[in-house]
Amino acid sequence: MSTSPTKTKVVWNDSLERLYDSWHRRVAAAEHGHRLMADRLRRRYFLLGIPVVIFTTLVGTSAFASMQNASANSITTENADPDVVLLIVGCISVLAAVLSSLQTFLRYATRAEGHRIAALRYETLRREMAETLALPWESRGQPDRALDNVRNRMDRYAKESPTIGERMWGGELARKFHLSTVPPDPPRPAGPIVIPEQGADGR
């Protein structure tokens, strides 16, 4: 009668604690990075959008005023060159159109909203991980389940979220949250690694 091998129960230890803590720091860094990107893109949206509104309003006002002045022949009476007035109005109109096209192309508002949503997702995960780290080992449950849950959510959020940028991630965030290149690997068993020799038949 064959007996199925008993599965070894995984328990929390120092190695798993360091791995979980490194993931927690990465999640916190991702949350902070997405918040910084959302604020940065929101500022750019206003810096580009406000001039568009101003120039568009000026173009509309100038065109309306030009038509009134032309009908009243006030341009010539005020010694204003109609060609210069039309040139100024045309330049403002072109500038407004260019800024409006850049605003549509760069999608600052849409990208800022994407970073804001990503920051909220990482914030929820960070709080859950912080709660787990605050509990004693015996009260946390199975570490493999906790790690699988965190890893799956980190992978999903990374795929669904806009990118932060290698310069910010490897610079400011890496220094602030003490990030390593990759999370630390579990320690391997002590002793040399033995590679079995192949037999004559290649097995």
Write up this protein.
This protein has one domain. The model has no long low-confidence stretch (mean pLDDT 81). Helix content is 71%, strand content 0%. It has 203 residues and is mainly alpha-helical. The chain has 6 helices and no strands. It is elongated.
Count of helical regions: 6
The share of residues in extended strands comes to under 5%
**Main β sheet profile:** none
Low-confidence spans:
none
Overall pLDDT: 81
Question: Helix/strand-derived class?
Answer: mainly alpha
Report the helical percentage. Answer: over 70%
SSE topology string? HHHHHH
Total DSSP E strands: 0
Oligomer: single chain
Silhouette: elongated
The domain tally reads 1
Cα radius of gyration in angstroms = 31 Å
Distance between the amino and carboxyl termini: 31 Å
Summarize the SSE layout with pairings.
Elements: H1 14-72, H2 74-77, H3 82-106, H4 108-134, H5 143-160, H6 166-177
Give the key terms.
203 residues, mainly alpha, 71% helix
Task: Characterize this entry briefly.
The chain has six helices and no strands.
